[in-house]
């Protein structure tokens, strides 16, 4: 969930008011197994949820808001692996334009 949240914040530039954090985390929930190294590939639900988030991005502030949501949610999953998280955009065919990481700064 943590890796997915980080990815979502990078993918979707959705305003906090436009997309509540609980909606962001729900769309990223399918990525938890892959992010924690339990699944060999991201699930279809993971990729679909992230694609839906990516389609909602309208502004840089939207992207930052999603990033903050995901980064906060990831803290609930201490087993998330940065190496797995970084692979999600490519595996789901989503271009985020920057490396996805647990340590990403959502404000830049």
Automatic annotation (TrEMBL):
GO molecular function ontology, one term from the record: lipid binding
Cross-referenced SMART domains: AAI (SM00499)
GO biological process: lipid transport
A family per Pfam: Tryp_alpha_amyl
Keywords on record: Disulfide bond, Lipid-binding, Signal, Transport
InterPro entries: Bifun_inhib/LTP/seed_sf, Bifunc_inhib/LTP/seed_store, Plant_nsLTP
All copies of domain Bifunctional inhibitor/plant lipid transfer protein/seed storage helical, residue ranges: 21-106
Protein name per Swiss-Prot or TrEMBL: Non-specific lipid-transfer protein
């Amino acid at each position: 969930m943590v890796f997915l949240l980080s990815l979502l914040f990078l993918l979707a530039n959705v305003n906090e008011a436009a997309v509540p954090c609980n909606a962001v985390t729900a769309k990223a929930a399918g990525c938890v197994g892959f992010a924690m190294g339990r699944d060999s590939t991201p699930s279809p639900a993971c990729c679909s949820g992230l694609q839906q988030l990516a389609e909602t991005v309208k502004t840089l502030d939207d992207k930052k808001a999603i990033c903050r949501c995901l980064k906060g949610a990831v803290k609930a999953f201490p087993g998330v692996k940065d190496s797995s998280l970084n692979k999600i955009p490519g595996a789901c065919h989503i271009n985020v334009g920057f490396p996805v990481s647990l340590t990403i700064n959502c404000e830049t």
